[in-house]
Amino acid sequence: MDRRPAAASSDGDRSDRAVIRTLLRFFVAVAVIGALALGTAVLAPTVLEDLGVDDTEFAVPDSIDTDSLPPPSSNPPPAGERNPAVTDPADPNESVYETDVERVDSATVEDFVHAEVNDRRAEHGLEPLEWDGTVASVSRAHSHDMADREYFDHVNPDGEEPMDRFTAVDDYCRGYGENIAQTWVDRPVEGPGTSDTAHYQSAEALATGLVDQWMNSTPHRQAILEEGTVPDWDRGGVGVYIADDGAVYASHNFCVEW
Hints:
By secondary structure, the protein is an alpha+beta fold. 31% of the residues lie in helices and 21% in strands.
């Protein structure tokens, strides 16, 4: 932190500090009512078509070569209860997007993300997270809200943070965490952690891409693997919203029960 007297600071210094404060607020862990609420966000992968890259690299063919398409999704292990007793009133429920490979629906993506996260945890000797339908409903509502009101943050335009959104629905989590990510389905994007191109056309591929985003970012990986000051999570819920234009918003929330 710059502790020089204000009189010694130039306009440029103040501007730089404002940017730094904004970035720190974006990644900082939030303590709410004595409960730990973690928040980290992954910026959306760049859509390669928007970079001015030679159009011939990504030209849409006149007809579909089915032999070149990736395989459709396998059957995901069901994450858990889809109709809990308590849900977020703003939960949009299922959203879908049609690709040349399959009908990508948000519920299937959520199942795959939950299973993939537990696989990554198992690789590090951690117990699987129990699926929580209420936490997932709150997560899904936040994903939809980000798409609907065109923002990308843990704090919504009303000033509500992750714990605020959960306690407005239920109150059994004493610790609460949130990872968010944004990407696209059926559009070429930068692959997470690589220089390769990703083109998610199935629910399974999209889910893997979302988890790869989080695992390739230190604070998100720490939230998943309970590293540093992150608590030992009891349960979690995934909420995915797929917009009409193929934009995908994902929230993965974690909970420690009282």
